[in-house]
Amino acid sequence: MAILILGLVIFLGVHSIRIFADDWRSAQIGKHGELAWKIGYAVLSIAGFVLLLRGFGQARLDTTALWNPPAALRHLSALLILAAFVLLAATYVPRNSFKARLHHPMVIGVALWALAHLLANRTLADALLFGGFLAWSVASLMAARRRDRIAGTRYPAGAMGGTLAAVAIGIVAWAAFAFWLHERWIGVRPFG
């Protein structure tokens, strides 16, 4: 469990700098340059992610249940994750209505992904991993919206083509992950 916690602290800590220390981040970029910042950020993120994956893999061996989710929550979880994949796609597809209205679809998608996994899973490792990501995504969204208000950020209006593309890409990615990749990479069949 310690490796999982260390991985979460490093990975989410690095990703929380804009939430809790945005001025410090700007000062470091000014002092060392954007490339040096990005390299350091990437190295720490990858190290944290590797520890997080390794720690979660080890912690999952303890199957002591904190609670027993009803079967219906698996269906709700699948729908939430489908929405999360659409929002993830909307992060990168230009001129879509999701980005125009929500402004930060990726962190909202992460929140949905984490919530879905909290609903459908039951161990302490699940609670730490997905609860950590849920808390981070809520804090990140609040900080991003605050930065947008201060900066007066305006997002371009969405277009039907971009919105449909985000939905289509999200559905295809969700289906590929749900029916094939999740079992291969995670070892769990969501629908089996």
Q: Your description of this structure?
A:
- The chain folds into two domains: about 1-60; about 65-190, no CATH class.
- The model has no long low-confidence stretch (mean pLDDT about 95).
- Helix 1 packs antiparallel against helix 4 (about 35-60) and helix 5 (about 70-90) runs antiparallel to helix 7.
- It is built from nine helices and no strands.
- The longest helix has 28 residues, at about 125-150.
- It is an all-alpha fold and about 190 residues long.
- The chain is globular.
- Pfam families: NnrU (PF07298).
Rg, alpha carbons: 18 Å
Helix content: over 70%
Number of helices: 9
Number of domains: 2
Overall body shape: globular
Order of helices and strands: HHHHHHHHH
Name the structural class: mainly alpha
Question: How is the quaternary structure best described?
Answer: single chain
Biggest sheet details: none
Distance between the termini: 27 Å
Number of strands: 0
**Stretches where pLDDT falls below 50 for ≥5 residues?**
none
Transmembrane segments: 35-56, 76-94, 100-120, 127-145, 157-181
Pfam family, one: NnrU
Subcellular location: Membrane
Domain NnrU: 3-190
